[in-house]
Amino acid sequence: MIFLKKIVRRPLTRKLMVSAWLVLVVMIGRHIPIPNVSISDYLLKDNTFLGLSASILGGDLSRVSLFSLGLGPWMYTLILLRVANLGRKKISSPKTDTIKRNALMLIIAIIQSLSIIVNVDFHSSANQLPLVLETMLVLVAGAFVLSWLGNMNTYFGIGGPTVIVLVSMLNTQLNAILSSYTAIFSPSNRWLTVGIFLWSLAAIYIYMIFEHAEYRIPLKRVSINSSLITETYLPIKVNSAGGMQMMYAISFLLLPQYILLLLQYLYPHNNQLSKWQSYFSTSSLAGILIYMGIIFALTLIFSFVNIDLTKAVENFRKSGDYIPNIRPGKDTKEYLKQVIIVLSVFSGFIISAIVAFPLFVALGNTDLAKVAPLTGVLMMSSAMIWIIREEIRTIQLQKQYTSLFE
Q1: What is the spatial distance between Cα 143 and Cα 39, in angstroms, rounded to a whole number?
Q2: Which of 39, 59, 239, 315 shows the greatest Cβ crowding within 10 Å of its Cβ?
Q3: Helix axes of 129-156 and 94-117: crossing angle, nearest 10 degrees
Q4: Number of folded domains that form the chain
Q5: Which CATH number characterizes residue 404's domain?
Q6: First and final CA of the chain: distance in angstroms?
Q7: What is the pLDDT of residue 11?
Q8: Which helix (H) or strand (E) holds 216?
């Protein structure tokens, strides 16, 4: 008993227990059906792209449940607000930020919930407006509850919302593979499936290399007089954007899908909407190319978001550091900018090509379409696990320090 108490008192163990409990709540919520909705006639349950894309955002479109929307509204809100605040120097109050965030999240959640509702049948044939409003309210409430659970995991658990997304994504991909096991391992698809699995493992290895690889720019430090001064350098990661650009790319593809689903219900005879929908699905050539373009662009953008050139140059000025043969100030900033662009273009092209290759292979094959996203899923999972691993290492650092008076 005393041993168990000691284990529970450890910060890492306590956080892991909280995260496990919250994940359990999320998994239960994914199986809580919404009243009056006919599950058997749900039109989106066989849409592979929408189902997997929603799972990457913590949702579940295989059934209409409490957490069908997942963390999608929350993530879209973060993306839109982050883009809107780029370059803004004026900082608003936390209360104002919270109001803006919740209002925008509410609007996005309503749009997503309506897109799902128009693809379901209700048990009752009476006036369906109250049923639509009731279902929409439950789905929107579920999205806010899931966002709250993610925040609780940030404060008291490990990994924040990342853990919820990771479990949801792996669970959906595993179910997709198991449900189509016979088809994807049929004689005509067997070797292609094995090839995709091997390609996915190679993709994880390449991603890990990118996470550790860095370009070292030599620095001269006039304020340091030491024999180690010749070894001073400024490290810039080859993939400065991190590994979340694939998740954000899926987000950019998924939101137009929801809007087009709603428009198709409002304008059922408009054939142009179906064509537009294919542009935002990885089951079409145009959709894959757009997906690659978004990953490439986000890799470039996030690299500059994660590396503040103005702040770096300002720190050089304060410390007296400089890059050999480069004038301080604007020239240094321009040089660093060019380095980041070259590295981002390289990593963006490699990552987008690696993720897209299995999708090209699976074009026109509905069976392989369920296993083709595995490469991207495993790369995103590796990025998330890496984030969780770093957080665990930070918590464990406390064990390396003891009180001065012990």
Answers
A1: 20
A2: 59
A3: 130
A4: 2
A5: 1.10.3370.10
A6: 26
A7: 76
A8: strand 214-218
| Predicted confidence (pLDDT) at residue 399 exceeds the cutoff of 60 | yes
Tell whether 188 and 41 lie within a shared domain: no
Residue 359 contacts residue 371 (beta carbons within 8 Å): no
Q: Based on the domain organization, do 240 and 256 belong to the same domain? A: yes
Boundary residue ending a domain (179, 204, 236): 179
Domain match, 115 and 241 both: no
Mean pLDDT of 30-47: 67
Q: Is there a contact between 283 and 372 (Cβ–Cβ < 8 Å)?
A: no
Question: What pTM value is reported for the model?
Answer: 0.83
User: Tell me, what's the pLDDT at 51?
Assistant: 67
Map tokens 């997304």 to a residue: 165
Retrieve residue 105's tokens.
């999240």
Which pLDDT tens digit goes with each residue over 88-147? 666 677 778 788 888 988 998 888 888 888 777 777 666 677 888 888 898 899 889 988
Residue 400 is predicted with a pLDDT of 67
DSSP letter string, 58-100? T---SS-BTTSSTTHHHHHHHHHHHHHTTT--PPPPHHHHHHH
Domain containing residue 133: 1-179
